[in-house]
Design goal:
The chain is mainly alpha-helical. The protein is built from 4 helices and no strands. Helix 2 packs antiparallel against helix 3 and helix 3 runs antiparallel to helix 4. The longest helix has 17 residues. The chain is globular, with a radius of gyration of 13 Å. It starts with a helix and ends with a helix.
């Protein structure tokens, strides 16, 4: 299992949530647009801010990044949320 998989497993275990791919009916297919629009970008920024303060929001953030098909674009920033909280 890769570093991201291990990280998500720890988040899921800590917060008792199941990774969305394992949930019935979940499809990680990206939205039709390649880039999030202004509303989606604002939502992502809000989720990043919330996740920086509350790790339980990281799960919701990951779902939204997957839904929009932009996780790769934000992967480093997403992982930095966990580095910073561990360093503090």
């Amino acid at each position: 299992m890769g570093q991201l998989g291990e990280l998500l497993a720890r988040v899921e275990k800590a917060y008792g949530q199941q990774y969305p791919a394992e949930q019935e009916g979940y499809s990680p297919e990206p939205a039709e647009e390649e880039r999030p629009g202004p509303a989606e970008s604002r939502r992502l920024e809000e989720l990043f801010a919330q996740a920086a303060k509350d790790r339980s929001k990281a799960f919701e953030l990951k779902q939204e990044l997957d839904r929009l098909g932009v996780f790769k674009d934000y992967e480093d920033r997403f992982l930095d949320l966990f580095k910073r909280s561990g360093e503090a």
